Amino acid sequence: MKYTSYAYSIMHRYTFFKAADHCRTALSNMILKRNAGHNKWSNIRHIKGANDQQKSLLFARFSRQMKLAIREQNDSNPETNSKLASIIEMAKKNSMPKDTILNTIKTHSNSKAEPYWHEIKGPRGSIILIQSLTENVKLLKQNLNTLVRKSGLAYCDSGAKHLFIHKGILIAKPSPDLTNAIEDCIEHAINAGAEEVETAGDDLEPGYYKFICEPNDMPKVRTNLEKYKYDIVHAEEEHLALQKVSLSDIEYEHLAKFINNVQGLPDVIQVYDNVN
Q1: CA gap 215, 209 in Å, rounded
Q2: Strands (E), the chain
Q3: Is the N end or the C end of the chain the one with fewer CB atoms within 10 Å?
Q4: Has residue 177 got a pLDDT over 60?
């Protein structure tokens, strides 16, 4: 859990807090602090009045998420596919046209695409984890191989997915009525069923908080936060690196270029990394 300097200090990897009610000790007074940041390469900040290019990228991201949700559940009906319903709700909230949403669902309703993971190693122990959904894995691998070769990178020798942890991420803005936002945020996180909460970070706009939970708990956490009048601007499953590495500016820019090119491949759903 990350706190501002406001009446809080960070000790090693754990932050302790006092619950308002002693009965909450059963839920544990300890919340693990983890370097749980959004994917810096693809993070799209949710700002009202975003320009057309930002909106286009955001809508494409929602379309990919819908595609994956339909395939994972083998269900294109949002009434019975809660994950799909949640994505559609976020898409509507971000002004994605209804026709675009319906067309995305229709297009992928009978898709035979299969999910794949691709693990790439970069400089200084950096790992790029690529999630894809494709009906033509041979063509996808050819395109990916070309990008890997041109970037001077390589595939991992052994599985690297275990170096990441699968979590649900929600970013929300609390009600302006809160007088002690940070303290209330912690309290609400516990009550909502979140495992962790971050109150500051490079990927957070001022006044927004990040809640981390188990992927299957996202609908429950979201519903509970909304009961506290939080404005949910982001709700997505992510793979967070258990340990991160630092790169030089040149290495960072080189890897960023590679990842941007990978994200341009139509069958790539998401890209994760372990870079600070």
Answers
A1: 18
A2: 14-16, 30-32, 114-121, 127-134, 154-155, 164-173, 196-198, 209-213, 231-241, 268-273
A3: C
A4: yes
